[in-house]
Design goal:
Elements (H helix, E strand, L loop, with lengths): L7 H13 L2 E5 L6 H17 L4 E5 L17 E2 L1 H8 L6 E5 L10 H5 L3 E6 L11 E4 L6 H9 L10 H15 L9 H11 L5 H10 L3 H12 L2 E3 L4 E6 L1 H6 L10 H6 L6 E8 L3 E8 L5 H8 L3 E3 L3 E6 L3 H24 L1
Helix pairs in contact: 2-5, 2-6, 5-6, 6-7, 6-8
Length: 346
């Protein structure tokens, strides 16, 4: 159960830092997803309510995916290019990174590390060590937006639940629970969903636009990737791979890969699904889904310090070409499953 009072000292410290701040930075690692974006927008709303004169900027390393551009206040989400062009070098007093650690903040990391106060708000159990000034991490939260909700309703912030902030929190809630299907769906998460809906926003629109709507290019990409999927380890593992030139052939964006791993995972008999995505400069992104027998967050972290996530859904960015990553990761996954099977027999 998530309780804001557990972090009373941290919230007091955060409130004090924001009260003294003129310029605040909010960021999140990598390409924004429903939870990280919802958390950032809700956090901005909370800070602006409590401290209306505070200058708050959301700056992310990657451009905002098209699917989220319908959300209220989304015009305040910037990339380093647009931020630098419009405002130049603004010295931030407080930096907040949500839904993942500083190790994947990319070009925003420099802004964040210059902040006098550096806060970290997350619900992932696994994260890289870093000397954050304020650390608020609650693995029992279904999503980072659920954690932000409890912070926003604490005695320090008392944020009104208007339809805008409810949309932000709801998007993160349904994104990380998979429309309340995943094992991180708690009674508290369902109760929070009901509370948010009472604000009257169009939850069908938020769910369909933010979670289900796809470009035609993404449909072509999905069909291509599924057609090339392969089984491994007696059908316990399913995997596929996406090269950069494949995205280019279908005129697809990086965001068009979203959801492909879930289609692989929902295959009968599968224990682990793996999707390899080729990145520039001979790097590879690996996404994992698990039925629970394999802790893929722990496995992803064993591959690199830049890996992690949830027990049943995780990822890692590897400093190696995709062909080498495929061989390396699948061999290690085979060994892990073999050793697990031996332990069960014993």
């Amino acid at each position: 159960m998530v309780e804001a009072k557990k972090f009373a000292n941290e919230l007091k410290q955060l409130n004090g830092a924001l009260k003294a701040a003129e310029h605040v930075l909010i960021t999140s690692p990598g390409v924004a997803d429903g939870d990280s974006l919802g958390a950032q927008l809700a956090l901005r709303k909370m800070i602006r309510h409590r401290f209306p004169n505070c200058d708050v900027h959301i700056v992310n390393d990657e451009k905002l995916p098209q699917r989220y551009r319908f959300l209220p206040d989304v015009e305040f989400v910037e990339s380093p290019e647009t931020f630098a062009a419009s405002r130049g070098e603004v010295p931030f007093d407080v930096g907040l990174i949500v839904d993942g650690g500083i190790d994947r903040a990319g070009r925003v990391r420099g802004y964040y590390e210059k902040c006098k106060v550096r806060a970290f708000i997350d619900h992932h159990a696994v994260s890289i060590d870093y000397p954050y000034t304020i650390r608020i991490v609650e693995p029992s939260a279904s999503s980072t937006t659920e954690l932000i909700y409890h912070i926003s309703q604490s005695s320090f912030f008392k944020t009104p639940l208007d339809s805008d902030i409810c949309q932000h929190i709801y998007l993160g809630l349904i994104f990380d629970t998979g429309f309340f299907r995943h094992s991180n769906t708690t009674p508290e998460a369902l109760e929070l969903g009901a509370k948010l809906l009472r604000s009257g926003f169009d939850f069908t629109r938020v769910g369909e636009r933010g979670m289900l709507e796809r470009t035609f290019s993404s449909l072509q990409l999905l069909a291509y990737t599924l057609s090339r999927a392969q089984l491994r380890n007696d059908g316990k593992v399913i995997w596929s791979a996406l090269a950069r030139n494949t995205l280019q052939a279908f005129h697809a964006a990086d965001d068009d890969r979203e959801g492909i791993i879930d289609h692989l995972f929902l295959t009968h008999g599968i224990q682990v699904a793996v999707l390899f995505s080729e990145l520039p400069n001979e790097k590879t992104k690996v996404s994992f889904r698990s039925q629970g027998g394999v802790d893929v967050a722990e496995f992803a972290r064993s591959l690199t310090e830049h890996g992690g996530g949830h027990q049943k859904a995780a990822g890692a960015n590897l400093e190696m070409p995709m062909e080498k990553a495929i061989e390396n990761v699948l061999d290690k996954l085979d060994a892990l499953l073999t050793n697990s099977a031996k332990c069960v027999q014993i």
